[in-house]
Automatic annotation (TrEMBL):
Belongs to the avidin/streptavidin family. Residues 1-22 form the signal peptide. Coiled coil: none annotated. Disulfide bonds join C25-C105. This is Avidin. Forms a strong non-covalent specific complex with biotin. InterPro entries: Avidin, Avidin-like_sf, Avidin/str, Avidin/Streptavidin-rel. GO terms for cellular component: extracellular region. It is found in: Secreted. GO terms for molecular function: biotin binding. PANTHER family: AVID PROTEIN-RELATED, AVIDIN-RELATED.
Length: 136
């Protein structure tokens, strides 16, 4: 029995190593953030281009919130290792502003896909002297 134990351990390690392969994160699908905003990303094409919709739960305007179109691209380089970087633009349907997002798709330790992003919103200004307050 002593001779069989090392073989079983090696077999277990070999089978367990298959589960350690790189976790892949897919941008396609519906995403919801901490504030209740949600977006749906349609299929990402072979070049990394995608489209979808964004429905925000928060706004600085008094206008009725409407679903807005988004367009983006995902980095398809060899160093992405299944957790790609991406960027997309939302053209808000209910205000005179556009927001750009950039981020990365991660798979956490429990296997959950998570998007980490940063954004900039540019609002329309009537004149250049108010340009300083147009970007948030």
């Amino acid at each position: 029995m002593v001779q069989a134990t090392p073989f079983v351990l090696v077999l277990f390690l070999a089978l367990g190593a298959q589960g350690l392969s790189a976790k892949k994160c897919s941008l396609s699908g519906t995403w919801v953030n901490d504030l209740g905003s949600n977006m749906t990303i349609m299929a990402v094409n072979k070049d990394g281009v995608f489209a979808g919709t964004y429905h925000t739960a928060v706004t600085a305007t008094s206008n009725k919130i409407k679903e807005s179109p988004l367009q983006g691209t995902m980095q398809k380089g060899p160093n992405q290792k299944g957790q790609p970087t991406f960027g997309f633009t939302v053209n808000w349907s209910f205000s005179d502003s556009v927001t750009v997002f950039t981020g990365q798709c991660f798979v956490d330790d429990s296997g959950k896909e998570v998007l980490k992003t940063m954004w900039l919103l540019r609002a329309h200004m009537e004149d250049m002297k108010n340009d300083w307050k147009a970007t948030r």
